[in-house]
Amino acid sequence: MYRLRGAVAADGEFLAEVVLAATRAQGRFADNLDETEWRAGFVEWTLESIADPATELYVVEVDERPAGRLRVSRTPEAVELNGIQLHPDVQNRGIGTAIISALQSEATRRGVPLQLNVERDNPNARRLYDRLGFTKVGEDGAEDVLRWTKGVEQNQLWNADVAGRYDTPDTGMFAAEVIEPTVTRLAELAAGGRVLEFAIGTGRVAVPLAERGVPVSGIELSTAMLDQLRTKASAESIPVVVGDMATARAAGEFALVYLVFNTISNLLTQEEQVACFRNAARHLSPGGRFVIELWVPELRRLPPGIPATVGVADPGYILLDTYDVVRQHVVSHHFHFGEGTEAHLGRTPHRYIWPAELDLMAQLAGLTLESRHADWSTTPFTADSPSHVSVYRLR
After folding, report:
1. Which helix (H) or strand (E) holds 144?
2. Which residues pair with 254 in a beta bridge?
3. Strands 65-74 and 79-86, how do they pair?
4. Which runs of E-coded beta strand occur in 209-357?
5. Bigger pLDDT: 267 vs 124
6. Phi then psi for 207, rounded to 5 degrees?
7. In the predicted model, what is the mean pLDDT of residues 56-81?
8. Are 290 and 284 within 8 A, CB to CB?
9. Helix, strand, coil % over all residues of the chain, rounded to 5
């Protein structure tokens, strides 16, 4: 989609032209701008930026031609996006999103936030950053300071300790009676094509699917979960992009993109969930499918005035879900304990989604519901089904 190369002194005039064209297209230059003076000042500043060891200035190339400008600073505390402009001729092609997503992946691998400033009179850029999960953390003159910390937060939630305890071979969601129908159905839907798993985790589904000869790739935000996957499969056999499943891009097109075991609910806003659908659609070849396994919200089990339900009460494990029905949020509290009085508590936040809302998200992404079953064995879905497997096709 694009390539970055380090800027050199000869790029000064081109980079000035890109910034002029992009800013002019947004109507953000004053009518009385002295363009000649502005260009001279910008070229001089560009030369200073190239010589500054604290920053990296890049030319963005699209279709092997210069098309944009990117400036990044890297410190021990953060990755800082100091500026990005694309020529209007290459805008609205997802290039800016892809560049920022790559910086998010870099920040995730380093365990630091991604930070930037955006002018308050640039609503188009602000909408993009809002969609990509940035939040306002301060102000700097006429600019808002935005920060993306999801990579840090997810690696704290899905850390090495959790990843090390995640796999439960032959039991629970790793039991053969759970894995076999899942892998069989996914292989059938892939129909011999390449598949991509969003939030691939430790490879619970991807590894057995790849062992059937299906070419599997993945996207994963937790580096600890990915490290656990690498104990079972190499980067050559199952390539994985470190990043957010709502925005990160894997190379190529796929016949099938899938999300299993309620994982789309880990995205905590409706906006992020819609972005996830759109990201799936961007990865699909014509006629490709997006498959989601998701539970049906259990609000019928929630008595008036009681904000929690007990989902599981097994020896050694209790699952307690607490609900915020205004925001459609639920926090799952996982209590693990032995014979003594000590217990280990882990919490996972979710945003629950009704099937009808899920279908509307699909429509917004250009996808149509093809089938919905109660499980991977294609049991009919009814009003009493606790979960569903929904298959959407790219129109």
Report:
1. strand 143-148
2. 284
3. antiparallel
4. 216-220, 240-242, 254-259, 284-295, 308-314, 317-324, 329-337, 343-351
5. 267
6. -65, -55
7. 96
8. yes
9. 35, 30, 35
Backbone region of residue 269 per phi and psi (left: phi > 0; alpha: psi in -120 to 50; beta: other values): beta
Scanning 246-337, the segments in alpha helix (DSSP H) are: 270-283
Q: Which two tokens stand for residue 371?
A: 């089938």
Provide the pLDDT for residue 394.
97
Helices (H), 136-175: 150-157, 160-166
DSSP reduced 3-state for 39: helix
Mean pLDDT of 179-202: 98
Q: Count CB-CB contacts under 10 A for residue 254.
A: 23
Report d(CA 105, CA 182) in Å as an integer.
29
CB-hemisphere CA count at 13 Å for 212?
A: 21
> In a 3-state reduction of DSSP, which class is residue 390?
strand
Q: Position of tokens 């064995």?
A: 377
